[in-house]
């Protein structure tokens, strides 16, 4: 098959951080490692009816926002997507992604007000999963290569806290058995069982496997924005669906008369109940139930907060929210596309405000916080 080559100007970014250009036939082409403004010679490597993927053969004119990647394994490791552009360009790309999803999928004219960032692009991750494999007769430890389960050997990751890079060094020296997977979380005082984190004066204790935002500093920005949007008063009730270990429930529920967290993971519910007790918040309760199948007790239409997994709300959970008919909904999302899609399930609510948060610097992922009011 003849290799198809083109000269293409990159005009933006895809949801995975790939550069986007247009072929002469009008199809979008996604180019890994390209920056907005690059003029690239590319070779098509995968054809699809409405789009295709290509690799860079050479950069004829570099983008003004292009920089030299500062990681030796950036081109093969699956962890980062934006180490080849300035951080300012990365933030612009993420804000554009959020607003494009709201407009194209959600059919909204509302735009994100801003993208919040701690400014810390290195050493922020408090959790990592390391993999080991046999390569050339030796055991190597690191992360998966992009798009595969082949292990990419890594000596140090710029995204990880120092404690986790120390753990990576120790794992490399100990040579764990090939096929091993080690998940570690760094909390207050290093590694412990269970791990403790502190946010805004609240202590959270959890097992290493429990969900907690990997960037504690950015999590604080996100939760502060959620608290601003929720605007709870002492005569209102808060309901938190998919509450996990209760971080949002406790963070927001301090300002409510009563708060209830709903979570279907029994271990996370036990952690949440212990966190409420440890922080002296007796008016906050937790139940183990599916977000779509639980019976509210005394909810009077106050505020509901939801932070679902990446796939978004289930249809049953959306129906339950409509049944509860809260006055306000604060929706936190790690995927702008599923957030925009879910807005169409919440008929009867109007999006009032939205903000983006850079929870994962140097990757393509972005968090959103959106406020909806009952019409």
How are the elements arranged and paired?
Blueprint: E1 5-9, E2 12-13, E3 19-22, E4 28-31, E5 39-47, E6 51-61, H1 87-104, E7 115-116, E8 127-135, E9 138-144, E10 151-153, H2 162-174, E11 181-185, E12 195-199, E13 202-206, H3 216-230, E14 237-241, H4 247-253, E15 258-263, H5 266-278, E16 284-288, E17 303-306, H6 315-324, E18 328-333, H7 336-343, E19 349-357, E20 367-374
Parallel strand pairs: 4-6, 7-19, 14-15, 14-17, 15-16, 17-18
Antiparallel strand pairs: 1-5, 2-3, 3-4, 5-6, 8-9, 8-11, 9-10, 12-13, 18-20, 19-20
Provide an overview of this structure.
The protein has 3 domains: 57 residues, Beta Barrel (OB fold (Dihydrolipoamide Acetyltransferase, E2P)); 209 residues, Vaccinia Virus protein VP39 (Rossmann fold), CATH 3.40.50.150; 59 residues, no CATH class. The chain has 7 helices and 20 strands. Helix content is 22%, strand content 30%. An 8-stranded mixed sheet has the order 7-19-20-18-17-14-15-16, sandwiched between helices. By secondary structure, it is an alpha/beta fold.
Biggest sheet strand line-up: 7-19-20-18-17-14-15-16
- Describe the main β-sheet briefly: 8 strands, mixed
User: How many beta-strand elements?
Assistant: 20
Helix content: 10-25%
The CATH class assignment of the largest domain is Alpha Beta
Number of domains: 3
CATH superfamily of the largest domain: Vaccinia Virus protein VP39
**Coarse shape:** globular
Mean pLDDT: 92
Oligomer: single chain
């Amino acid at each position: 098959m003849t290799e198809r080559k083109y000269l293409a100007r990159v005009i933006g970014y895809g949801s995975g951080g790939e550069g986007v250009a247009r072929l002469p036939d009008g199809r979008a082409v996604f180019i890994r490692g390209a920056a907005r403004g690059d003029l690239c010679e590319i070779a098509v490597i995968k054809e699809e009816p409405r789009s295709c993927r290509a690799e860079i053969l050479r950069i004829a004119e570099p983008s003004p926002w292009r920089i030299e990647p500062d990681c030796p394994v950036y081109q093969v490791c699956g962890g980062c997507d934006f180490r080849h552009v300035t951080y300012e360009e990365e933030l612009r790309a993420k804000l554009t992604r959020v607003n494009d999803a709201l407009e194209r999928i959600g059919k909204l004219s509302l735009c994100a007000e801003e993208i919040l960032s701690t400014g810390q692009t290195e050493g922020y991750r408090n959790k990592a999963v390391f993999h080991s494999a046999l390569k050339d007769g030796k055991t190597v430890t690191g992360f998966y290569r992009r798009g595969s389960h082949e292990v990419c050997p890594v000596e140090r990751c710029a995204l990880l806290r120092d404690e986790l890079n120390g753990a990576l060094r120790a794992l490399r020296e100990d040579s764990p058995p090939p096929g091993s997977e080690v998940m570690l979380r760094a909390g207050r005082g290093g590694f412990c069982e269970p791990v403790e984190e502190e946010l805004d004066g609240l202590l959270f204790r959890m097992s290493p496997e429990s969900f907690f935002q990997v960037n504690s500093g950015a999590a604080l920005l996100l939760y502060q924005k959620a608290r601003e949007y929720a605007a709870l008063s002492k005569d209102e009730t808060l309901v938190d669906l998919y509450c996990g270990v209760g971080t949002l429930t406790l963070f927001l529920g301090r300002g409510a008369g009563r708060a209830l967290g709903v979570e279907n993971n029994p271990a996370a519910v036990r952690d949440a109940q212990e966190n409420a007790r440890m922080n002296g918040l007796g008016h906050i309760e937790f139940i183990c139930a599916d977000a779509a199948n639980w019976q509210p007790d005394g909810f009077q239409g106050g505020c509901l907060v939801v932070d679902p997994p990446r796939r978004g709300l289930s249809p049953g959970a959306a129906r339950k929210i409509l049944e509860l008919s809260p006055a306000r909904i604060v929706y936190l999302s790690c995927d702008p596309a599923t957030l925009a899609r879910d807005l169409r399930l919440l008929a009867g609510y109007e999006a009032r405000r939205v903000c983006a948060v850079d929870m994962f610097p140097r990757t393509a992922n972005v968090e959103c916080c959106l406020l909806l009011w009952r019409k």
